Each structure stands twice: as C-alpha cells, then as structure tokens.
Amino acid sequence: MADVPISPRAMTRPAALGRTLDLWRQGDAIQRLALLTGILLVLVAVAAPLLSPHGPLDQSLLNRLAPPIGFERYRPGYFLGTDELGRDILSRMLYGLRLTLSLAFLGSIIGLIVGAIMGLVAGLFGGICEDIIMGAVDTQIAIPFTLIALLFLAIFGSSLLVMVCVLGLYGWEQYARIVRGEVKRLKTLPFVEAAHAAGATNMRIARAHILPNIVSPLVVQFTLSFSNIVLLESTLSFLGLGVQPPTATLGSMVGVGRDYMPTAPWIVVVPALAILAVTFAVQILGDWLRDRADVRLRSR
After folding, report:
1. Could you tell me which residues come within 8 angstroms of residue 14 by beta carbon, excluding any fewer than 6 positions away?
2. 226 close to 285: Cβ distance less than 8 angstroms
3. 288 contacts: CB under 8 Å, gap ≥ 6
4. What is the pTM of this model?
5. I need a labelling partner for 192 at 20 to 30 A (CA). Which of 133, 149, 202, 271 fits?
6. Of 3-17, 72-86, 135-149, 193-207, which gets the smallest average pLDDT?
7. Is the dihedral angle over the CA atoms 133, 138, 140, 145 positive or is it negative?
C-alpha cells in the first residue's frame, strides 16, 4: 500500500521529555560527531567575547606573522599565530565565525520565509498568481546568483544590512518550487478534501494540514541553503565584495591570507577549517533532522 502523508491531527504527539536523548541514541557515530560539532561551533560563536584572548582588531606589528603554538617563533598568548598586522588569528576566527553564522542564518531564514509564502500562494490559489510567481522563479534560476549578488553589492555597497538582504535572496526559488509542488500534491489527498468540505479556509488548511507535511523537504533545503550561503558569503568576502575590513568573517580571513600562503599558511588554514566544520555539521544534521521531522516516519 502506497505511503501517503498523515494529517497532523491523526498523529500522537511524542513526549517532549527525553527527546534530545532519543535523538542522540538513534544517531550513528557521524551524526553524533556532527551534532557535537554544531553545538560546539554555536557555543564558541556566542561566547566569542569571553573566549578571545585579544580583541579582533588589536594590532601588534612586533608580533606580525607569528606562527601557532608548537613552532619555533611562537609568541606566548597567540595560540594560533598572528596575521600580517599582528592580529590574533584565534580571536579573529571566533568573531568571524559568529558573524558568518549570523549572516548565514538570517539569510536562510529570509529565503525560507519568502520562498515558502510564494510557494503556498502559487500552490493554493493557482491561476495568474501561480504564473507570475513561477515566472519569477524561472528567471531567478536562469541567472547565476553570483552575478545578482555582485550587482546588488556594486549598487548598494557592502554594509551588513545589504549583505543580509543579498544572502536572503539566495535560494528562495528552491523553497518556492518545493512548497508549490508539495501543496499541489497534498491538495488532492482525502484529509485535505475533507477539510475543504467541512468549510475550512485555505489559510487554515495550509496551517493545520499542509505545512506540517512539508517540514521534511524544507529542513533539507534549509540545510543546503545554509551551507551554500556560508560558502557564498565566504566567496564574496574572499573577492573583497563582502563585509569590508577590518571586520572579520571567515571568508575575508581566507581572502586576506591567500597572499601569505607560502610564508604564513596558518592565516588561511584556520578559517578554512572553520568553514569546513560548519558545512560538515550542517549537512549531516540536515539529513538527520529530515528523518526525524518526516511525519510519515514518526507515525509508524
């Protein structure tokens, strides 16, 4: 018998107590590692002012290009070395991680909200609304987003507000396509038709019956978008078009350090490893949460 989405009203709600422990027990070694990595990255980013041994902008030209601990020219207090201006790499990495995660999270949330609303409107109402929205989606897909980002940054500058808006434009069309397809599929199922027959409005049907059944694909797309936005922000900052110096992001640290790779590779390696850790944790956790959020799997 084919699997069909189950109306949330027909499901029993799992107990909230011990849910986190259940997630931990049911995960494999890679998933647990990703969970620990994600929690550690978030905690480190939040506690950056407490963990940083120096200010992210503090310069010490006498200590410029000092190597990390364990190397011959290591300077006490600079555990991961210093950059070309004598700024502490560890401190800048902590603050850069916090800013990069904040930008990626805000951009992903904006894209999710805009795309989900557009997809719901297109799927529920159809007609000319659907034609206009899907035309915008096709246009967005046809144009490489990097060109759009470069155009916006060239016109409006590289302030934090502009960066959040630009990153928020990334991926909304994918959310819209997913939500529209799921809404059109779910509208034909018995429990939605029964709700229509009972006199429920489109908004009530969307909130009570459709949105809970599209959590799983949205979670997957959110994680993909989050990772891609981290890489996009890093790319723009690497090119010098993202958040401007002296403010540190992971991408800008890699971009500045590329000129010193032969003599001071730690300037690039430390933020590059942080980017790798973020994308690894988000991708693995996204797959894990997808399985846990699928109402069809939870109802079995």
Report:
1. 298
2. no
3. 23, 27, 31, 34, 35
4. 0.80
5. 133
6. 3-17
7. positive
